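INSTRUCTION: Work out how this chain folds

Token vocabulary: learned, describes local backbone geometry

RECORD BEGINS BELOW THIS LINE
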Amino acid sequence: MNLATILDLVSRTTEATILVLATMFPIVNPIGSAAVFLSMVGTLEDGLQKRLASRITLYSYCLLVVSMIVGGKILSFFGISLYAVQIGGGLVVAASGWQLLTKDAQRDQPTVANPDEVMAQAFFPYTLPITVGPGSISVAIALGAHLPSQLHVAGFFSPLVLIASLVGSALVCVLVYVCYRWARNAARLLGGTGTMVLMRLSSFILFCIGVQILATGLRSFLHTIHLR
């Protein structure tokens, strides 16, 4: 393998990695998700929040990588269509957004959190669907299907595809950790009113995202009926 070939492989892998980051960042939306995360965790002790953010980051990374590399195969194995994931996930996301949107801030006074209970919720609902929801999963599955052609290779398990998937997802999850870990610091800068406005707005956006994912799934489902 000559130098030109190596440079070409590096260039294509770098472009694919940037594609993963650029595609997944807006849909994962670490900044908006961090506001929702903060509204849910309330006044957790700083060390516990750090542990929770680390656990969420790890789970999010695993979800993105698995969805990107074998997500389509898993859905096919269980006979689950992508629109079914969108419909079910959209309902969950919309319900979570509605619950946060209608949450009574005055009634929910700070309480001493049980670390075991908090960490037990790291996957659901903090990772799925708040951080990596059905929208992110469906995009990751589609992206994984596109990467082999982007890299001009055959098969999902090509080293180039694996590198782009692993590194791109890692970069997204680093941003998730940064936003979640220091969400309270950002809230202090915004002040009480600014934080409340941001939380309500993020909750509404989360609700709208859920409705949009649900609508997309329903449209795909109705399209399949029309084709038949």
